[in-house]
Amino acid sequence: MSQDRRKLVRQSIPEETPYREATPPPMGGTPDMAETLRLLERISRMPDIRFEKVQQMRELIAEGRFETPERVDGAVRRLMEELGL
Question: For the stretch 3-15, what's the b/e string if a residue is b when 16 or more beta carbons lie within 10 angstroms of its beta carbon?
């Protein structure tokens, strides 16, 4: 991988990304408390993002080493299973 490309890949995800509280977009109406609690419960079950894994995958893709025949075959097989073919 070229030095410039490697630099871009590394710069795309900061080493430590700080958590910022997002403000929700304006809504037509205020959701009721039950809906808010349901959404908060779903959010709490979401897995954490493993930035080091994301960075490794970006590097593999940039280097052209991510898409192997085995990965493509597996993806096609799972897609066909999902579509019932």
Answer: eeeeeebeeeeee
Alpha carbon separation from 1 to 11, 32, 67 (Å, rounded):
15, 52, 15
User: What confidence category does residue 46 fall into, taking pLDDT thresholds of 50, 70 and 90?
Assistant: confident
Query: pTM here?
Result: 0.36
Q: How far apart are the C-alpha atoms of 79 and 68, rounded to whole Å?
A: 17
Q: Dihedral of CA 59/65/67/71: which sign?
A: negative
Structure tokens at 63: 């280097």
Which range marks the domain in which residue 60 is found?
1-11+49-85
* Total domains present in the chain: 1
Task: Check residue 56 and give its pLDDT.
Answer: 93
